[in-house]
Amino acid sequence: GCHAIEMPHGDPLYIVVMANLFHFRNLPIHESYDLKGSWIARGGGSRKRDLSRVGKDNDLNFKVNIDPTLKNELIQQIAADATMLMKAKIMDYSLLLGVHHLETDQNSDLL
After folding, report:
1. What backbone torsions phi and psi does residue 48 show, to the nearest 5 degrees?
2. Ordered per-residue pLDDT tens for the chain, 111 residues
3. Alpha carbon distance 54, 91 (integer Å)
4. Angle ∠(39,24,60) on CA atoms, nearest 5
5. CA-to-CA distance for 99 and 73, rounded, in angstroms?
């Protein structure tokens, strides 16, 4: 939920508390990314990335395959979020992506 903390000297601090959806299916998350849809100052440095840390847009260097039904639901949710943020005059948006590596012959990724 959304909360506001009244600070003794200054503006209120607004925070959002959300559930951790990565533990929904009890699958380990091997990589995670904070995606904003920008390439400016969004990671992708030349050194090897520590996979225990959250990557950024430029660190994501593989294609993510999503079931078509889930893809449509995701697009609808992003559109609804963007509409709500626009009405509230908020510009910041991130998508937290968790990747679980399947142990298959193809080394596929599962969202």
Report:
1. -65, 130
2. 788 889 888 888 888 887 777 776 777 888 899 888 777 777 766 567 787 788 888 888 888 888 999 999 999 998 998 898 888 888 778 888 998 888 743 444 444
3. 21
4. 20
5. 18
Per-residue 3-state assignment (H helix, E strand, C coil) for 54-92: CEEHHHCCCCCCCCHHHHHHHHHHHHHHHHHHHHCCCCC
The DSSP secondary-structure symbol of 23 reads: G
How far lies 31's CA from each of 25, 82, 83, 111, in Å? 16, 25, 29, 11
Structure tokens at 6: 């009244």
